[in-house]
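We treat protein structure as text, and this decision shapes the records that our systems exchange. Because each token names a local backbone shape, the row as a whole describes the fold. An entry from our holdings is shown next, in its original layout:
>
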Amino acid sequence: MYPIFNYGSPRFYVHEQLNVHFDTRQAAGMVVFEPVEEFITTLGGKSIPVFKGYRANVSLKLYNTRSSDSDQHLILMKVINHARQMRKAILLQPRYCNGRTLDLYVYPEGDFGYKEITNLNAGQSIELTFHSEDLLTSLPLISANLAFLKIDKDSFLKLKNNHRIII
């Protein structure tokens, strides 16, 4: 199986000094492409669609459960504050990895608040939603071709381009 829109964890980017990439144990979230179109009705009653593009809607659920997580969440808040103050979109890569990655310029929407996971000091979660700045003319055609180490019948680890590691 090759994941559609790639596989990884969310990355938020405003500029080189202000960006954060959450680690892979964070949920990758969901990306939904909503068609934006109008329908014109002719005098004969026929409906004609006028397609304008797709609006990307991203929802993420992030966790603050380890002591190192709070640093990432504080940078995320700086990214959102900066984007809102400067009236600029955030480059969001909802499933960031080193291959082909879905890049969306988005604006945050909805409330911002952390929810306790339990009544103990065990952690917090936050659900965030974003919508794309621009309409996309078509659905992005991105899938990940993940590279895995494979052991063949002769006890070699197979790498890309049929290179081998002897065990």
